[in-house]
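Q: Structure for this?
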Amino acid sequence: DAGVIQSPRHEVTEMGQEVTLRCKPISGHNSLFWYRQTMMRGLELLIYFNNNVPIDDSGMPEDRFSAKMPNASFSTLKIQPSEPRDSAVYFCASGRSALSSGNTIYFGEGSWLTVV
Amino acid sequence: SQQGEEDPQALSIQEGENATMNCSYKTSINNLQWYRQNSGRGLVHLILIRSNEREKHSGRLRVTLDTSKKSSSLLITASRAADTASYFCATDYGGSQGNLIFGKGTKLSVKP
């Protein structure tokens, strides 16, 4: 099992540039989550999908952030334009719905974003 | 916020000692999970306890859940230097699809 695969692992970009983070969930999982981790705010849920449909995007900070899941094996998180305060580690995770049935989620290794 | 809160924020112990971390939450849950994060890595699931369970074991891990107090504890017995990591509780509040809300974690340091 390949696990959740994220790319890029590290990215340094200039303020104002567009950033696209990519995620390939574990095959057979139909829930996908994007989290952001910072020292100040901890791990925040940005958005989650079930069967490729966005279920809850209330954690998306603002319109500069957008996420898509065009198919069951791929998702993107885009920031346009990026700002220094977006610097964080962005995690993608996947799982089998429903979590309330006792399923767990599996995290990728994260994308470390620095906006200068 | 429904976010769980871990306590303490940081814990430093000697190898061989037991480590206890606590988690409190605010509303009824379906289950509570504990995850571990090594520095620079993603989170890894450790153990899940359902709302109708009071205690669960997995190797050197023991998790308890007190739904009346809305709290959980994670005990790591006979700690090792390799247990050094951050530990997070995550609460599943249910709903049609469900999602996990993570606390800010306890940073555990086990000194050899």
